[in-house]
Amino acid sequence: MMPSELILDDPCLRGPMETKPEKQDESQRVIDIVRRHWAKANIQDVEIHKIDPRFVHGPLYYLSVYDAEGVERENYVHVTSRGDSLFLSLEQLVLGIKEVKPLSLWESGLSFVKLTGIPGLLAICITFTVCFIAIRKTKNDIPELLSNALTFILGFYFSNIAQSISHSSQSPQTNRPI
Protein backbone atom coordinates (compact mmCIF):
# COMPACT_ATOMS: atom_id res chain seq x y z
CA MET A 1 0.00 0.00 0.00
CA MET A 2 1.43 3.41 -0.99
CA PRO A 3 1.69 6.23 1.58
CA SER A 4 -0.73 8.36 -0.48
CA GLU A 5 -3.45 5.76 0.17
CA LEU A 6 -2.79 5.87 3.89
CA ILE A 7 -3.35 9.59 4.40
CA LEU A 8 -6.52 10.27 6.36
CA ASP A 9 -9.37 11.85 4.43
CA ASP A 10 -9.91 15.45 5.45
CA PRO A 11 -13.17 17.17 4.44
CA CYS A 12 -11.34 20.51 4.25
CA LEU A 13 -9.06 19.28 1.46
CA ARG A 14 -10.21 19.72 -2.10
CA GLY A 15 -9.21 16.86 -4.38
CA PRO A 16 -6.91 13.90 -3.78
CA MET A 17 -3.68 14.48 -1.93
CA GLU A 18 -0.65 13.62 -4.04
CA THR A 19 2.40 11.92 -2.60
CA LYS A 20 5.40 14.13 -3.21
CA PRO A 21 8.94 12.74 -3.30
CA GLU A 22 9.76 14.41 0.02
CA LYS A 23 6.69 12.70 1.56
CA GLN A 24 8.02 9.32 0.40
CA ASP A 25 11.43 10.20 1.86
CA GLU A 26 9.71 11.23 5.09
CA SER A 27 7.82 7.93 5.24
CA GLN A 28 11.04 5.97 4.79
CA ARG A 29 12.76 8.10 7.43
CA VAL A 30 9.92 7.38 9.88
CA ILE A 31 10.20 3.62 9.24
CA ASP A 32 13.99 3.86 9.74
CA ILE A 33 13.48 5.63 13.10
CA VAL A 34 11.29 2.77 14.32
CA ARG A 35 13.64 0.10 12.94
CA ARG A 36 16.63 1.71 14.69
CA HIS A 37 14.75 1.78 17.98
CA TRP A 38 13.84 -1.90 17.71
CA ALA A 39 17.22 -2.94 16.19
CA LYS A 40 18.18 -5.23 19.10
CA ALA A 41 14.76 -6.88 19.15
CA ASN A 42 13.96 -9.57 16.64
CA ILE A 43 11.37 -7.62 14.63
CA GLN A 44 10.04 -9.01 11.36
CA ASP A 45 8.35 -6.00 9.78
CA VAL A 46 7.41 -2.34 10.24
CA GLU A 47 4.55 -0.80 8.29
CA ILE A 48 2.68 2.48 8.28
CA HIS A 49 -1.04 2.13 9.03
CA LYS A 50 -2.07 5.70 8.41
CA ILE A 51 -0.84 9.26 8.42
CA ASP A 52 -2.63 12.17 10.07
CA PRO A 53 -1.21 15.15 8.13
CA ARG A 54 -2.91 17.80 10.26
CA PHE A 55 -1.66 16.78 13.68
CA VAL A 56 -0.09 19.29 16.10
CA HIS A 57 2.71 21.13 14.21
CA GLY A 58 3.26 18.26 11.79
CA PRO A 59 2.09 14.84 10.61
CA LEU A 60 1.60 11.89 12.94
CA TYR A 61 2.47 8.44 11.60
CA TYR A 62 0.76 5.34 13.02
CA LEU A 63 3.05 2.31 12.61
CA SER A 64 2.86 -1.37 13.41
CA VAL A 65 5.92 -3.34 14.49
CA TYR A 66 5.70 -7.13 14.21
CA ASP A 67 7.99 -9.24 16.39
CA ALA A 68 9.26 -12.79 15.75
CA GLU A 69 6.04 -14.32 17.11
CA GLY A 70 3.91 -12.10 14.87
CA VAL A 71 2.68 -9.95 17.77
CA GLU A 72 1.81 -6.45 16.64
CA ARG A 73 2.94 -3.40 18.61
CA GLU A 74 1.67 0.04 17.67
CA ASN A 75 4.16 2.91 17.56
CA TYR A 76 3.70 6.57 16.69
CA VAL A 77 6.13 9.03 15.10
CA HIS A 78 5.42 12.75 15.23
CA VAL A 79 7.29 14.70 12.53
CA THR A 80 7.84 18.42 13.11
CA SER A 81 10.23 21.09 11.89
CA ARG A 82 11.93 20.77 15.28
CA GLY A 83 12.63 17.05 14.87
CA ASP A 84 10.97 13.64 14.86
CA SER A 85 9.67 11.97 18.04
CA LEU A 86 9.00 8.26 18.54
CA PHE A 87 6.27 7.19 20.97
CA LEU A 88 5.91 3.53 21.90
CA SER A 89 2.40 3.81 23.32
CA LEU A 90 -0.65 6.02 23.20
CA GLU A 91 0.10 7.13 26.78
CA GLN A 92 3.59 8.29 25.77
CA LEU A 93 2.10 10.13 22.79
CA VAL A 94 -0.38 12.02 24.97
CA LEU A 95 2.32 12.95 27.49
CA GLY A 96 4.69 13.97 24.69
CA ILE A 97 2.13 16.18 22.97
CA LYS A 98 1.40 17.92 26.27
CA GLU A 99 5.05 19.04 26.22
CA VAL A 100 4.91 20.49 22.69
CA LYS A 101 5.78 24.15 22.79
CA PRO A 102 3.79 26.62 20.68
CA LEU A 103 5.29 27.67 17.40
CA SER A 104 7.08 30.98 17.22
CA LEU A 105 5.46 33.77 15.22
CA TRP A 106 7.86 33.09 12.33
CA GLU A 107 7.12 29.32 12.33
CA SER A 108 3.38 30.03 12.48
CA GLY A 109 3.66 32.39 9.53
CA LEU A 110 5.59 29.85 7.48
CA SER A 111 3.09 27.07 8.21
CA PHE A 112 0.21 29.44 7.27
CA VAL A 113 1.87 30.26 3.94
CA LYS A 114 2.46 26.53 3.29
CA LEU A 115 -1.21 25.84 4.00
CA THR A 116 -2.79 28.70 2.05
CA GLY A 117 -0.07 29.76 -0.36
CA ILE A 118 0.82 33.30 -1.33
CA PRO A 119 -2.67 34.03 -2.79
CA GLY A 120 -4.24 33.13 0.56
CA LEU A 121 -1.80 35.41 2.37
CA LEU A 122 -2.61 38.28 0.01
CA ALA A 123 -6.35 37.68 0.46
CA ILE A 124 -5.99 37.88 4.24
CA CYS A 125 -3.91 41.08 3.98
CA ILE A 126 -6.46 42.77 1.69
CA THR A 127 -9.34 41.72 3.94
CA PHE A 128 -7.65 43.06 7.08
CA THR A 129 -6.72 46.30 5.32
CA VAL A 130 -10.30 46.94 4.19
CA CYS A 131 -11.63 46.10 7.67
CA PHE A 132 -9.05 48.38 9.30
CA ILE A 133 -9.96 51.30 7.01
CA ALA A 134 -13.70 50.71 7.58
CA ILE A 135 -13.34 50.58 11.37
CA ARG A 136 -11.02 53.56 11.53
CA LYS A 137 -13.60 55.74 9.72
CA THR A 138 -11.18 58.23 8.24
CA LYS A 139 -12.25 61.05 5.97
CA ASN A 140 -11.32 58.98 2.93
CA ASP A 141 -13.49 56.12 1.82
CA ILE A 142 -12.14 52.68 1.10
CA PRO A 143 -10.21 52.84 -2.20
CA GLU A 144 -12.19 51.35 -5.07
CA LEU A 145 -9.36 48.97 -5.97
CA LEU A 146 -9.35 47.44 -2.45
CA SER A 147 -13.13 47.27 -2.38
CA ASN A 148 -13.20 45.43 -5.72
CA ALA A 149 -10.41 43.09 -4.61
CA LEU A 150 -12.29 42.22 -1.42
CA THR A 151 -15.50 41.59 -3.37
CA PHE A 152 -13.59 39.27 -5.73
CA ILE A 153 -11.98 37.40 -2.82
CA LEU A 154 -15.29 36.91 -0.98
CA GLY A 155 -17.02 35.80 -4.19
CA PHE A 156 -14.29 33.27 -4.90
CA TYR A 157 -14.38 31.97 -1.31
CA PHE A 158 -18.16 31.52 -1.17
CA SER A 159 -18.34 30.02 -4.67
CA ASN A 160 -15.79 27.37 -3.61
CA ILE A 161 -17.88 26.57 -0.54
CA ALA A 162 -21.06 26.35 -2.63
CA GLN A 163 -19.34 24.07 -5.15
CA SER A 164 -17.98 21.75 -2.47
CA ILE A 165 -21.41 21.53 -0.82
CA SER A 166 -23.15 20.75 -4.10
CA HIS A 167 -20.53 18.15 -5.08
CA SER A 168 -20.70 16.42 -1.71
CA SER A 169 -24.51 16.35 -1.63
CA GLN A 170 -24.81 14.82 -5.11
CA SER A 171 -24.47 11.09 -5.44
CA PRO A 172 -23.86 9.32 -8.75
CA GLN A 173 -27.49 8.16 -8.75
CA THR A 174 -28.91 11.71 -8.68
CA ASN A 175 -27.04 12.66 -11.85
CA ARG A 176 -28.77 9.99 -13.96
CA PRO A 177 -31.43 11.15 -16.43
CA ILE A 178 -34.93 9.94 -15.63
- SSE class: alpha+beta
Helix content: 40-55%
Low-confidence stretches: 1-21, 173-178
Rg calculated over all Cα atoms: 23 Å
Order of strands in the sheet with the most strands?
1-2-3-4
| Percent of residues in beta strands | 15-25%
How would you explain this protein's 3D organization?
This protein has 178 residues and is α+β, with helices and mostly antiparallel strands. Helices cover 49% and strands 18% of the residues. α4 packs across α5 (144-169). It is elongated and about 75 Å long. The two termini are 40 Å apart.
Keywords:
178 residues; alpha+beta; four-stranded antiparallel sheet; 5 helices; elongated; disordered N terminus; disordered C terminus
What order do the helices and strands come in, and which of them pair?
Elements lengths: L2 H4 L14 H17 L5 E10 L7 E8 L4 E9 L2 E5 L2 H9 L6 H32 L7 H26 L9
Antiparallel strand pairs: 1-2, 2-3, 3-4
Helix pairs in contact: 4-5
What is this structure, in a nutshell?
This protein is of the alpha+beta class. The chain has five helices and four strands; from the N terminus they run ααββββααα.
